[in-house]
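Quick check before the chapter quiz. The format below is the same one you will see on the exam, so make sure you can read both the input and the output lines.
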Amino acid sequence: MSRGFVKEDDLEHAGTDLPERPISALPNYVTSNGLMQLEQNAMALSAERLSLVNLKDDQAAMQKLAVIERDLRYVSARLKTAILSTPLLNNYMVLFGATVTVEDDVGEPHSFTIVGDDEADMKLNKVSWGSPIAKALIKQKVGDIVVWSRPVGNMTLEIIKISY
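Here is the expected output.
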């Protein structure tokens, strides 16, 4: 493309006009660890923002700054709406904050901890309270059989342990 058809202002702002991160419409329940993670994330983003704010001539720094500012707006909004939920230490029923051990159809054990959206991490077996697995488990008791509706097919699980 000929340079005659490119506005210089467009090149200067490339990558700085980012869409906002979507915020869940569900209530923002958080565990104490989830709240601490949000606060630490906000502090880290603020520090990183301060380190970049004076580099107005560096295009790469400005693009990174735009991402940091967007993420900081997201984290700030999540902190403002956070609802700290402390577990009731109710070892006979699955509630928010519980770690639930289940056994699948073939006898394989799996553990899931039910947490807030921002704390969820499948690598750590932490699932959002709004996820299908959490919805299947919440308000159930040890010995109950639940059906986890998954895109690849339903899975039957038996709750074998609940802890907080």
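If your answer matched, good. Residues 59-81 form the longest helix (23 residues).
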